[in-house]
Amino acid sequence: MSTKRTQGTQPGEDRQPRDILRTCKAQDIQLVRFLYCGNDGLIRGKSCHTRFLNSYLRSGIGLTVAMQSFNMLDQLVPEGSFGPVGEVRLAPDPETFTVLPYTPKSARLLCDMVTLEGAPWGACTRSFLKRMIVRARQAGLVLRAAFENEFSLARREGDRYVPLDRSPCFSTIGMDSAAPVMIELIEALQAQGVYPEQYYAELGPGQQELPVRFADALRAADNQITVRETARGVALKHGLLASFAPKPFPDQAGNGSHIHGSLWRIKDGKNHFHDERGRYGLSAAGYAFIGGVLAHLPALVALTAPSVNSYRRLQPRFWASAYTAWGPDNREAAIRIPSKRRGLEMESTNLELKPCDPSNNPYLALGGLLAAGLDGIERKLDPGEPALGDPDTIPEAERQRRGIRRLPASLGEALDALERDEVLMAALGATLAKEYLAVKRSEVRGFEGKDVAFEIEHHFYKY
Fold first, then answer.
1. Is the pLDDT confidence value at 2 over 60?
2. How crowded is the C-beta side of 361, counted as CA atoms within 13 Å?
3. Are 275 and 422 in contact (CB under 8 A)?
């Protein structure tokens, strides 16, 4: 596959407005999308014509404040704080500029939400992650992470979605079936500076898995937006839908977006989680980070698994995790310590968070993970004993003794846990926390009394 870079389109480089304008002119770009991810986890935005791009690069594009009170059913939440009065700006991050390989004459920028005076808006999710990055840097640390996505390729036939195939897990049959889409997707991601490390056909019907290279936290969240957008755009060219819904087919395997992450020290550039003499090669700081995540996990899943559909996936014995447990290479544990790659032990030391799916807003998911883990490091929390088998097979009395709790069984339960969690609520800030809870509680109500078909229809197409 091609690894050729398109000149002037690689995100992460030092961008100036004149460079963006020059690229748009050279490649005959007509529309530039200003994108953001909302409290509902949907990717939304506005576009401007390149004739007027220079002015919007300076001022941002106007956006009604009401959009952060919209839910995934496209309803303005009645109890939300924002309505028809008031405006913010979608302020583009020039380093995220990229030409879109899958749609003609188009480019995109990822945006922060800022006030009319140019200050970060309290309801901006990307700004929330930036605050958590600053908090980590104050402790001398940076988070490097990646989302490990699963998604389903399907086509619409009448009133139902039909998977691309029903190939066996990891089979070459599945790889061959999806090859035209996946090769084009991989090339399109590389053209935008996102680098897939592996690819395979997964267990579910039409299901694909595409882990990408890790990056610093903000770039990792931006990359997740790129993966979701690009997969959908490329699939559409082939007459297919790429669905990142957590449970697109109720009786089949679900789609996760496991977060792999590690903290690195600024002072010496070393992996803070790596200790070759530690148990499973993990440092004391790594175990404290696990302790913090497990302590806050019932609340954290409201950010990492934030849709009604998510809780069809987070069930015991589904390899998605259902308990606040950790273990080495345990794919039923909420946090897995992956085995190291020989010769790359320090680089490959990381933690995998499994109760996470692609319906989340990646800025909220990574920001919440950082807040929980840093709290564990600050308080030196002990994660307890490892789970060396399926936590669901441990007797309930033993689970209680070891502090292993069942994760919330519904989005409503997760939101209740989030509202009680002082650390995560404080990290989000009053404005964002209030609005997020309002939006998500409205989604819970929106699906009450509806059948499974209604739930699947809305999640399958929108995520």
1. no
2. 30
3. no
Phi-psi region of 354 (alpha: psi -120 to 50; beta: other; left: phi over 0): alpha
Hey, is 60 helix, strand or coil? coil
pTM as predicted: 0.95
State the alpha helices, DSSP H only, in 200-268.
217-237
Asked if pLDDT for residue 161 goes beyond 60, the answer is yes
The ranges of the chain annotated as CATH 3.10.20.70 are 17-122
The predicted model gives 110-119 an average pLDDT of: 97
What residue has token string 């399958």?
Answer: 460
Domain with CATH 3.30.590.10 in the chain: 130-462
Q: Which helix (H) or strand (E) holds 363?
A: helix 362-379
Please state the rounded mean pLDDT for residues 336-343: 94
What kind of fold does domain 17-122 have according to CATH?
Ubiquitin-like (UB roll) (3.10.20)
Query: What integer best gives the mean pLDDT of the chain?
Result: 95
Q: What is the pLDDT of residue 13?
A: 54
Q: Which long-range contacts (CB under 8 A, 24 or more apart) does 193-201 make?
A: 193/5, 193/9, 193/10, 193/11, 193/12, 193/98, 194/223, 194/226, 194/227, 194/230, 199/175, 200/170, 200/174, 200/175, 201/167, 201/169, 201/170, 201/171, 201/173, 201/174, 201/175, 201/177
Please give the CATH superfamily to which domain 130-462 belongs: Glutamine synthetase/guanido kinase, catalytic domain (3.30.590.10)
User: What angle is formed at CA 180 by the lines to CA 171 and CA 457, rounded to 5 degrees?
Assistant: 80
Contacts of residue 331, Cβ cutoff 8 Å, sequence gap at least 6: 319, 354
pLDDT tens for each residue of 67-83 = 999 999 999 999 999 99
